[in-house]
Specification:
The chain is mainly alpha-helical. The protein has two domains: about 200 residues, Helix Hairpins (Orthogonal Bundle), CATH 1.10.287; about 110 residues, no CATH class. It is built from ten helices and four strands; from the N terminus they run ββααααααβαβααα. Strands 1-2 form a two-stranded antiparallel ribbon. It has a two-stranded antiparallel ribbon with strand order 3-4. A hairpin with an 8-residue loop joins β1 and β2. The longest helix has about 80 residues. The two termini are about 25 Å apart.
């Protein structure tokens, strides 16, 4: 039967061995199982990398979608600004003009003398209030409704004191009036400044709004393109060559029929076709034999009668048994008249010590 030189495909072994087929992959079953475990580990690593890759894409996809939502909010806000911007600016301008005119009026009032201010704003009002207050209950109620919360008693008291101390009371009333109007004037001026700032801010927003809207639309389009690419990648992940989870076992050309009954006859053709795993023994015997089959090994010796063939095989079996291996002995001799067990006992005794082979292994005579 032809044999072929091959290299074990287990990366931890890679030794050269003789195989019965050209497509044999492993030197022994252990290497095949070891390589199977290696490929299982590689498969788990590939799955882990693919999972991490998918998680990174999912994170980036979520980020882009959140960015799109933010840009959409910007577009909505600027659409509202565009819709309300001009009316708001118009309202600001109208309110500012009203305050400006009111300031002009109060500035003119504050420029009047004390007597002019009293005659214009107090004299007629005081007389009117007194007349209504001294009138019928209906007129008094009408006065209360017209001047809600007005200090009528104070007005009456001021009028009485004015007759007694006209100059001093008039001056005090006008000063209080002028101070109140001065405070209003300052408030109006402050409001005008706030309106000017608001107008400037809204005008700037309206001016920059087209650029901001264009940038937001461009960002959304770019993000949509990236989102489409990410979804395409997630739907079609890159193909990574995964190792076969279970390697194909190489079959030799001739195999030993495992169904033969124990003790049945086995010919040389069956022995040569058996599938074995190789290993090397330690010591001189290992250097002499070289690579031998693991689990089952057939040794055939030729020589003249009495040359020591049986004794050599007995001692080799003893070495194998001492190494913790199992040995099966097939005796193909004919016409000697002695069984294998008898030869074994005689060989051990002649060497000076019997050995219990039955306790360490099994010997079968065929």
């Amino acid at each position: 039967m032809a044999q072929y030189k091959a290299f074990c495909q287990n990366p931890d072994c890679e030794i050269e061995y003789l195989a019965s087929r050209k497509d044999t992959k492993y030197c022994c079953k252990n290497c095949r199982n070891a390589n199977y475990r290696i490929r299982q580990r590689e498969a788990k690593e590939i799955e882990s990398k693919q999972r991490e890759w998918a998680e990174r894409l999912q994170t980036e996809l979520a980020r882009l979608q959140a960015e799109n939502e933010r840009q959409q909010m910007i577009l909505s806000e600027h659409a509202k600004i565009k819709l309300e911007g001009l009316p708001v600016l118009k309202s600001i301008r109208e309110e500012r003009e009203h305050l400006r005119l009111q300031i002009i009026v109060w500035e003119r009032v504050l420029s009047l003398s004390v007597l002019e201010t009293y005659n214009k704003y107090f004299n007629e009002r005081v007389r009117e209030a007194i007349r209504y207050w001294k009138g019928s209950p209906e007129e008094r109620n009408a006065l209360i409704q017209y001047f809600k919360g007005a200090p009528f008693d104070q007005i009456l008291e001021l009028q009485k004191e004015t007759h007694l101390y006209p100059g001093e009371r008039r001056y005090n009333m006008v000063e209080m009036f002028r101070e109140a109007k001065q405070r209003e004037l300052e408030e109006f001026t402050s409001l005008i400044l706030e309106l000017d700032m608001e107008k400037q801010k809204r005008s700037r927003v309206l001016l920059n709004s087209p650029k901001i809207v264009e940038a937001a639309k461009s960002a959304i389009n770019s993000n949509n393109e990236k989102i489409g690419q990410l979804k395409s990648k997630l739907a079609n992940p890159p193909e990574i060559q995964k190792p076969t989870l279970k390697p194909q076992k190489a079959k030799p050309l001739l195999r030993f029929d495992q169904k033969k009954k124990k003790g049945g006859k086995v010919n040389v053709r069956d022995l040569r076709g058996m599938e074995f795993n190789t290993f090397t023994l330690d010591g001189e015997l290992g250097r002499f034999l070289g690579n031998i089959e693991r689990n089952m090994m057939a040794v055939a010796l030729t020589g003249n009668p009495g040359a020591g063939k049986s004794q050599f095989t007995f001692f080799m079996a003893r070495v194998l048994l001492d190494a913790g291996l199992s040995v099966m002995y097939f005796s193909l001799e004919e016409g000697i008249g002695q069984t294998t067990i008898e030869k074994l006992d005689r060989a051990m005794i002649e060497e000076g010590g019997a050995m219990d082979f039955e306790a360490q292994g099994k010997l079968h005579d065929v």
